[in-house]
Prior knowledge:
By secondary structure, this protein is an alpha/beta fold. The protein has helices at 4-31, 52-57, 87-90, 101-109, 133-143, 161-175, 195-210, 238-251; strands at 80-84, 112-115, 147-150, 180-184, 214-216. It has a 5-stranded parallel β-sheet, with helices on both faces. The longest helix has 28 residues, at 4-31.
Amino acid sequence: MKTRNQSARRWPQLTLLVVVALAAAALVALAFMPRQAPAGVGAEPVLTIASSEDAASATNSGGAPSASAPSATPAGTGLTVAFIGDSYTEGVGASDPSLRWTTLLAAANGWEELNLGVSGASYGQGLEEWISYAVQVEEAIEAQPDVVIVSGGLNMSELDQELGVESVFTDLRAGLPDARIIAVSPFWVSTAYPAQLTLTSELIEADVTAVGGQYLDVGHLFEDEFQYFELDGLHPDDAGHQLIANAVDAGLPVEIGG
């Protein structure tokens, strides 16, 4: 028969065994519990795609395209595109060449840009030779681009303009029989569109179409939109160049961009 003292001595032992068993069970349960990340850690990443090139290269940790980033490359990737034009094409008014409309357009569509624009240039044969589009046409033909985009007309005088416009497109087609030729309607400042420039637009449309090219009418983008211009009131600022890029991009054939 157990004495009271023997029974009393067993209680601490039993209590210790119970505590150990409970602690072991708690450790096992803790090991299988889902772990919670600290606040702010493990949230869904936010991707900021600055350009189509960034979008194409954005990948997840496994090397596959991210679900948040488009994997398709622009339709015109790999094309060389020559730009013929005046100060707007050259990029006057933009705070950096990368922000001129031609470069924005080329970057958005994966093109290699060849910017031949010269401030003061135009179609008219009555202009000094160095600012005639004829010089830029020769440079474009020498480079053999896939696409030529011609814009401008703001600087054109009435002298020989019909011959000037026609020769730009006939010469381009003769020297670049397989290239796509696109003419953009002449840009104008924030005042009303001049009647003479409307006539020039009609000449450009007729002559580029005659050689199998495309006429892209972007309308009078800047009518009463003074805020898009530099202090000189003649040249678009960064926002103005972006406006032109957007308008031209919207009218491009789908196989090269747009």
